[in-house]
Specification:
Elements (H helix, E strand, L loop, with lengths): L5 E5 L5 H11 L3 E6 L6 H9 L3 E6 L5 H8 L1
Parallel strand pairs: 1-2, 2-3
């Protein structure tokens, strides 16, 4: 699948952030997820990829400007 665009989700937690990631992935976007404990993103990334979506995740501290800049690169 060729993505129609990309979206970065800062704070892709277990509920609202994950729901947003799923919705964008279903619509054909590449989804880049970040949250303080990036290891907790593994189930969400696997779920989206199993549904043939494009998703990656990493640890991210939204309080750190340099970390946000690196995430958005």
């Amino acid at each position: 699948m060729t993505p129609i665009g990309s979206v970065a989700i800062v704070g892709a937690g277990d509920y609202i952030g994950a729901a947003i990631a799923r919705r964008f992935a279903r619509q054909g976007f590449s989804v880049y997820c970040g949250r303080r404990n990036g290891d907790k993103l593994a189930p969400l990334v696997a779920e989206i990829q199993a549904a043939h979506g494009i998703c990656s995740g990493r640890s991210l501290d939204a309080r750190d400007e340099a970390d946000i800049a690196a995430f958005l690169q």
